[in-house]
Amino acid sequence: MIQVLPTDPSPEGEKDRQYVTALARGLQILRCFSHDKPELTPQEIVRMTGLPQPTVWRLCHTLTMEGFIICAGENNRMALGLPALALGYAALVRQSLPKIALPYMQNLTDIEGMGMSLAVRDGLDMLYIQRTHGDFVYMNDPVGARRPFAKAPTGWACFAGYDDHEREQVLEAFEQKEPQALPALRAQLAQSREQFAQQGFVTSIGVIHEHLNAVAVPIRSLRSGTVYALSASGLAADWPQERLQTIGHQLVHLARQLAVAAD
């Protein structure tokens, strides 16, 4: 997925004098690395970011000198260095919701065998900030992994829990970066909003994986207004949509409890 930076991030074309484009591009490069793609070549980063190759080389050199990127093998492959890990843990440690939610998530996993995810939107991805692993051997991504917002039930749940302004921000970001995917996304999000309005949760039937079904709910922090999403997933053979209803209602109740503790 190409992550092209806006040429002018300020409203109405007005130049933001406080916005440092070089820094933003460096951060854009760091975002390219993920659980699924821990190592990348410069050519892959050029393709993912849409930045000119000389720019990528200069920024990667700077990030390497600072330790945020390290050499990872042949073909100039690169990976994140330990300073990047330290930043991730520094961000996670101040989050109270993942710690508070974990025992509730683990209890449901122990009883039902379902994997649980607590996630928050980061750009056009959903970022896992807490996980428990169920019986399904695939898709058991760890904390820090990402899933595309457009396909993740946690993304649909967040969108259902957003206000109109927040929803418009998401759609504008998709229109800028993935315009060809916007019509299908609008249809899916409209369907999820309707289901949420009727039942209080959203379901995903075979979207992430043909043998995986999931149910998700939004959690809006009563302190900050930040919207998180909590999901439960399991084998489609064991968890058809009808059976997901019971878990969905449990998640709705849990989300109300966790909204008080969310940052």
CATH architecture label of the largest domain: 2-Layer Sandwich
List the domain count as a whole number. Answer: 2
List the secondary-structure elements in sequence, H or E: HEHHEEHHEEEHHHEEEH
The largest sheet is: 6 strands, antiparallel
Q: What would CATH call the homologous superfamily of the largest domain?
A: GAF domain
Q: How much helix is in the residues?
A: 40-55%
Span between termini: 30 Å
Description:
- By secondary structure, the chain is of the alpha+beta class.
- The protein has nine helices and nine strands.
- The strands form two sheets. Strands 6-5-4-9-8-7 form a six-stranded antiparallel beta sheet. A three-stranded antiparallel beta sheet has the order 1-3-2.
- The protein is globular and about 55 Å long.
List keywords for this structure.
single chain; 263 residues; alpha+beta; Arc Repressor Mutant, subunit A; Beta-Lactamase; 2 domains; six-stranded antiparallel β-sheet; three-stranded antiparallel β-sheet; 9 helices; globular; disordered N terminus
How would you sum up this structure in a few lines?
The protein has 263 residues and is an alpha+beta fold. It contains nine helices and nine strands.
In terms of topology, how is this protein built?
Blueprint (H helix, E strand, L loop, with lengths): L20 H12 L6 E2 L1 H8 L3 H13 L3 E3 L6 E3 L1 H12 L2 H17 L2 E8 L2 E8 L13 E3 L4 H9 L2 H14 L4 H18 L2 E8 L2 E9 L6 E9 L5 H21 L2
Antiparallel strand pairs: 1-3, 2-3, 4-5, 4-9, 5-6, 7-8, 8-9
Helix pairs in contact: 1-3, 2-3, 6-8
